[in-house]
Amino acid sequence: MTSPRPRLAVDLGTTWTAAARGNGRTETITLGTHGAAMPSVVAVGEQGLVAGEAAEKILAVRPGAGAREVKRRFGDTTPIVLDGSPYGPDALTGTLLRHVVDVSGVNPGATELVLTHPANWGAYKLDLLRNVGAAIGFDQVELLSEPAAAALHYARTGRLNPGDHVAVYDFGGGTFDAAVVTLGPDGPVIEGTPQGLERLGGIDLDEMVFGHVARSLGDSLSDLDRTDPDVRRAVMQLRAACTTAKELLSADGETTVTVVAPGLHTQVRITREEFESAMRPRIAETLSALDRAVAGAGLQLGDLVGIVLDRKSTRLNSSHIPLSRMPSSA
Prior knowledge:
Blueprint lengths: L6 E6 L3 E7 L3 E3 L9 E2 L1 E5 L2 E4 L1 H9 L4 E3 L11 E3 L2 E3 L1 H16 L7 E6 L5 H14 L4 E5 H10 L9 E7 L4 E9 L2 E11 L4 H15 L12 H20 L5 E8 L2 E8 H25 L9 E5 L1 H6 L13
Parallel strand pairs: 1-10, 10-11, 12-17
Antiparallel strand pairs: 1-2, 2-3, 2-4, 5-6, 5-7, 8-9, 12-13, 13-14, 15-16
Helix pairs in contact: 2-3, 5-6
């Protein structure tokens, strides 16, 4: 009897990329030096395109040599320009995937590849994603929607029984997905039509904090010369500080963002109340999408055994989801 082929599962996220491999037993692959995931960043190095932490180091010195959030451009025919040269978003996605393959040490020709994707991606993007895997040498590429992957992981905790319905509320780094999943005999099955918001994720919350800082500084930030490399690096550092502030506000009542740029050195205070006020309209959009997903599955909230909150950004937002949306402690 032929042994099953090993599998490599990869989540090419907007902000972070994670992976696992297995052949009966699943093993998380460590892609970064500070954790299992690596930043979804691509940059032009001395020997060509590089990904992950190596790309982050290049971006810190040459902001125009790299790109973040490539997933948001996936399927776009307009190239992304790095160091003056154009690259297709699918080619840059392939660089991320190839880096994962190199780190994992798997043989593409002898390994099945599983790639996750937003639930509302259409046939064009799905074919393009499948081609990214095939271009690296995988002859078997399985595509799994991110809500289905979340439900599958949740099912493995033993908290779901066959026939149970759950809603997945997936607020990722760059996209939001809402879907209803039923645990069938062969695994999770998407019910109805998943709902997605492709321009709503953790990076948009970062932008809210950045916007608060910019407004607090008046014209001081907008008057900086963005063609100056020192200014561009300072803005990158400020955006990173805004991300940290966002994460701190998930637990703290207030925090400060330090602004250091040529001719500008100050701090801006932001409270959790101010942040919540800014994000409330966008969270309302996600709840509307969740309602549509449940209705599209022909169900009501009371028919669900729970709502699976997936991704780190979801944890930040969970305090804003009314308890009436949560029929159980899932």
